Amino acid sequence: MSSAQLTAAAAAAEIQAGRLSSEELVSACLERTRQVEPTVQAWQFLDEQHALAQARAADDKRRSGKPVGALCGIPVGIKDIIDTADMPTENGTVLHKARMPRNDAAVVAKLRAAGAVIMGKTVTTECAYFNPGKTRNPHNPEHTPGGSSSGSAAAVAAQMVPLALGSQTAGSVIRPGAFCGDYAFKPTHGLIPRTGVLMLSRTLDHIGMFARSIEDLALLAEELVGYDERDPDTRPRARMPFRAIAAEEPPIEPRFAFIKTPHWERVDADAKEAYGELVESLGEHVEEVELFPSAREAWDWQRTIMEAEMTANLQPLWREGGERLSERLRALIERGREMRALDYQRALRSVQPAIESFDELFTERYDAIITPPALGTAPKGLGATGDPVFCVLWTLLGMPAVTLPLMRGANGLPLGVQLVGRRHFDARLLRTARWLESALR
Amino acid sequence: MSSAQLTAAAAAAEIQAGRLSSEELVSACLERTRQVEPTVQAWQFLDEQHALAQARAADDKRRSGKPVGALCGIPVGIKDIIDTADMPTENGTVLHKARMPRNDAAVVAKLRAAGAVIMGKTVTTECAYFNPGKTRNPHNPEHTPGGSSSGSAAAVAAQMVPLALGSQTAGSVIRPGAFCGDYAFKPTHGLIPRTGVLMLSRTLDHIGMFARSIEDLALLAEELVGYDERDPDTRPRARMPFRAIAAEEPPIEPRFAFIKTPHWERVDADAKEAYGELVESLGEHVEEVELFPSAREAWDWQRTIMEAEMTANLQPLWREGGERLSERLRALIERGREMRALDYQRALRSVQPAIESFDELFTERYDAIITPPALGTAPKGLGATGDPVFCVLWTLLGMPAVTLPLMRGANGLPLGVQLVGRRHFDARLLRTARWLESALR
Q1: pLDDT at residue B365, rounded to an integer
Q2: Which of A304, A344, A356, A424 would you mutate first to test chain B, the one with the most B CBs within 10 A?
Q3: Going by DSSP bridges, is the β-strand pair B183-186/B206-211 parallel, antiparallel, or unpaired?
Q4: Residue A270 has what DSSP assignment?
Q5: φ and ψ at residue B373, rounded to 5 degrees
Q6: B314 touching A (Cβ < 8 Å)
Q7: What is residue A272's predicted lDDT score, i.e. its pLDDT?
Q8: Which among A116, A188, B65, B174 is least surrounded, fewest beta carbons within 10 Å?
């Protein structure tokens, strides 16, 4: 077995025990990349020598006997809207071609502090909106990998890298994660600082991550969360022991709320059947729960907030080079420019009451919500990245969400199961996810 | 001398020493009220028996030997946009006539916890905007008391009550405080929780206060600041020892920046002269400082934010009974409904950089800014409350501001001096204010 197939946790243990060097691991990942990248096209920027130099530096540090971080020598792919001071960050637009950030994003700095190797920059859709990049689904190159974190999702799935970072404003982590058969995780809004990441929407933007096990999601999340005074939505908090909690057995067997949402009718027939069987197999552990009526408007609120805030944030880009933006992005900004402050504020104010309604649901009965991550498996074609409709509610409310590659569609492509947890119960969500994964095995 | 003339700190000391009862103090204040209220018209609601019952309860508690709060037995006037569970809160509009809140506002609960007597509700302009109530200036009833905290400013000035609460979204504490010859103080945005107060603008609304000495402002502020999870702009913080710090001598003599702002030309001639003399008398302690260029737009930003947020907050009132609102308030809401989300967001985003520019000014050289609180003394006439133009910048940036009744205009009416401090250096601002007051005596 190539070390490129190892989970991050397994590789980190090998490295820390001195049985594997980071150079070997990164070399194996680069070797794998040479094989599959011509088809998958996950990378926007990858300098093999620079990755290997970081790997050797990690090995030197470990060999020197100095204490090393939890990710010592582990390569991580970084979505190309996340700034790196040593590599270009192009935000998926020709307008930012060869843009060199002055500083690392907060999350990149955290990864480096934890000893990680910043492998390269992964393909994003244009400005993390809907216009696709070049990436293809590793399970079938005629199908979309999803977006906007297309390259990160595909690189992890194709075993080019064990871990990767993405971002989600609508459904840009959970959807590509599900389409590519990854484990993908979007923690509670405000847990991971977004400083140095292309800002689309302060209210909606989240950092998320891709891995090949729940343990790896916990390992990575534990390094990324934290207060950053430059991100006004982060707060000083005690460190959350993601790995320890995710590894525990739940003290009592969890209960799930299966929520179809008002968009269930649009789910593919084979996926509907698969979720039906999943719910059936969970027996008494799951109950179908109707979404409370006010939440039915949440899709409109999310669109209103996203359009208003993206318009304000992308205004400089639109002014400088609007004609080099895709028609779809330009249309969003033109709609956003007409939006009224009253409608924007109304959407913003709807968020807190909805959060409180869900808090009650969790307090009263359930450990997690089960819901599809998308309408089905990755759609055929590379001209679109699929519909985020099954993610936007949880993004709007900043609730932690994880997708698990537990099923397959009729076409053989991965079919994810999305679990959504209570805000700030992130580690418990991963613990519940691990229980579910074991229960279904 | 009537005990109604005592400062709150002096009265509190007398009460705690058993030399004065709250019942005597409140009786004296009520007696004074009977004399001057027919002219001043500061109160929207005042139930003498209810005030006296609270006073007797405070006396009983003190006599029982139980520990009492810093405001034990001290009567406080409450602006009638601040909810009281035991008195109506009408928000200055006939649409809320006889409205009985279910709960005390957070600040009222804090006052009760500190032992204060909630004397009554003071007149506010309509919804704390510009349409005046019935109150007149105690120094000359043909002149406005200023607004929107008209009754609170007038009640303290007329010695009907030693302390009163107000609120400021543009200039509604500092301006009436200056017009009535009070000491008035608006602490840093987010220090005092606004739960249970008519919300006009989350970004701009501040609780402020009126007193007859700096020591009293410190005494009152110390009881009001605090974290409240229901006000998202408050934060858990260590308790700020307002009284102790305000009473200290500054370790080095303070330096002041005299800022005329772009609106200096509109200041009354006699006031210009008075401020000129003030600056001259401070000699080396003061330097005239030009406002940095970007701050010149702050007046537009404040108006944009105020109109957008007031429109959203007053929407239910406007829908239910728009025709019972004043023309001026209706016009604001109608303008606000047309505002674009883009312009609103742009204004919101301008705030932080301006705060940082002022932080530099303080770090480099100055302890406080000296600037007029208004265009001059209280204007003649009761149809308007004067112009907040000299307050809106500091309100927008959430900086602490205090006005001191140190001068008089050519017409013999009080002329205030506004000091503005660095955000979160509130107690130091009061210390600096005390130094200035002594230096000018």
Answers
A1: 87
A2: A344
A3: antiparallel
A4: H
A5: -85, -15
A6: no
A7: 98
A8: B65
- Does some domain include residue A294? no
Residue A269: how many CB atoms within 10 A of its CB?
9
| Shortest alpha-carbon distance between residue A238 and chain B (Å) | 15
Residue A253 lies in a domain: no
| A343 part of contact set with chain B, CB < 8 Å | yes
Quick check: is A281 catalytic?
no
Q: Do A338 and B343 touch (CB under 8 A)?
A: no
Number of domains in chain A: 1
Please report the residues numbered 236 through 295 in chain B whose beta carbons come closer than 8 angstroms to any beta carbon of chain A.
none
pLDDT > 90? residue A383:
yes
**In the structure, what pLDDT confidence band is assigned to residue A425 with cuts at 50, 70 and 90?**
very high
Quote the pTM value.
0.91
Does residue A342 belong to the interface with chain B, where contact is any CB pair within 8 Å? Answer: yes
> Of B227, B229, B340, which to mutate for an interface test with A (greatest number of A Cβ within 10 Å)?
B340
| Stretch A150-173: mean pLDDT | 98
pLDDT, tens digit, 9 for 90 and up, residues B351-362 = 999 999 999 999
Of B308, B311, B342, nearest to A311 by CB-CB distance is: B342
Distances in Å between the alpha carbon of B367 and those of A80, B252, B287, B428?
Answer: 45, 10, 12, 8
A79 noted as active-site residue:
yes
CA dihedral A224, A225, A227, A231 (to 10 degrees): 70
Q: Which ranges constitute the DSSP H helices of A84-163?
A: 106-113, 150-157
pLDDT, tens digit, for every residue of B212-259?
Answer: 999 999 999 999 999 999 999 999 999 999 999 999 999 999 999 999
> ipTM greater than 0.90, yes or no?
no
Q: How far is CA A205 from CA A78, A111, A168, A309, B358, in A?
A: 16, 19, 6, 10, 30
Shortest alpha-carbon distance between residue B148 and chain A (Å): 24
Is the Cβ of B2 closer than 8 Å to some Cβ of chain A? no
Check whether A38 has a pLDDT greater than 90. yes
A130: in domain: yes
Interface probe for A, chosen from B345, B351, B355, B359 (most Cβ of A below 10 Å), is B345
Percentage of chain A beyond pLDDT 90 is 97
- Contact criterion met (CB < 8 Å) for B308 and A336: no
Dump pLDDT digits (tens) for B10-66: 999 999 999 999 999 999 999 999 999 999 999 999 999 999 999 999 999 999 999
CB contact under 8 A, B342 and A349: no
Q: Which of B206, B212, B244 is nearest to B224 (CA)?
A: B206
Active-site annotation holder among B3, B21, B22, B79 = B79
B340/A contact by beta carbon, under 8 A: yes
Percent of chain B at pLDDT exceeding 90? 97
Q: What are the residues whose beta carbons fall under 8 Å from the beta carbon of A384, sequence distance 6 or more?
A: A130, A132, A144
Residue A198 within a domain: yes
Q: Which domain holds residue B303?
A: 1-441
Measured CA to CA in angstroms, residue B163 lies from B83, B146, B216, B404 at distances of 17, 17, 8, 15
Q: Tell me the per-residue pLDDT of A209-265, one tens digit each, with 9 for 90 and over.
A: 999 999 999 999 999 999 999 999 999 999 999 999 999 999 999 999 999 999 999
B260 in catalytic set: no
CATH of the domain at A134: 3.90.1300.10
pLDDT of residue B337: 96
